[in-house]
Specification:
single chain; alpha+beta; five-stranded mixed β-sheet; 5 strands; 30% strand; binds flavin-adenine dinucleotide
Length: 140
């Protein structure tokens, strides 16, 4: 079976309180672990950016479920591509809520997240979405 990587950006229905983000993360870990799905989820100013990695069927089935979740909308697929080696092998789902101090310390990436993830900026650069997700996974 072949592995794929899928990235998307979406918009929360409202500014998400910590408890709501915790509940989403708990579901991610509970559902992804048995399916050997790994990845990273970032939240910034009412927007999400997530990468999912694993067997194609498991990624697709999970993404379809995520797309039907009423907690977010305007889900924009950034990339879906074959994957040889996982980028986030240790995370059933890593998570980071980005805040103003992240913008101050990451001037290179800040334009892409400081006012929420904006696909018109992120989509214009090939690898920037994955670079940002990897950066925050490695600097957890
Ligand atoms: P439950 O968690 O028991 O939820 C049952 C149903 O209620 C689902 O349809 C759910 O969408 C809905 N629901 C739950 N809480 C609320 C709420 N507070 N308001 C409105 N509706 C609600 N799931 C994964 O498996 N893997 C992931 O990596 C993943 N990433 C996610 C990323 C984001 C940004 C979001 C918003 C959700 C993500 N989810 C993920 C959750 C996913 O969308 C489904 O909700 C979940 O997979 C369903 O799990 P469950 O069947 O155990 O249902």
């Amino acid at each position: 079976m072949s592995m794929i990587q899928l990235l998307y950006v979406s918009y929360a229905d409202k500014e998400m309180p910590e408890e709501e983000l915790d509940r989403i993360l708990e579901t991610c870990v509970r559902r992804n672990s048995p399916n050997s799905l790994t990845g990273m989820l970032l939240y910034s100013h009412g927007t999400f950016m997530q990468v999912l990695e694993g067997e194609e069927a498991a990624v697709t089935e999970t993404y379809d479920r995520i797309c039907q979740d009423p907690r977010h909308h305007n889900i924009q697929l950034l990339a879906k591509s074959p994957l040889e080696q996982r980028n986030f092998p240790n995370w059933a789902m890593g998570f980071r809520r980005l805040n103003p101090s992240d913008s101050a310390t990451n001037v290179h990436y800040a334009p892409f997240f400081s006012e929420g993830f904006d696909t018109s900026k992120i989509g214009a650069q090939d690898t920037v979405a994955l670079d940002i997700l990897k950066y925050f996974a490695e600097n957890e």
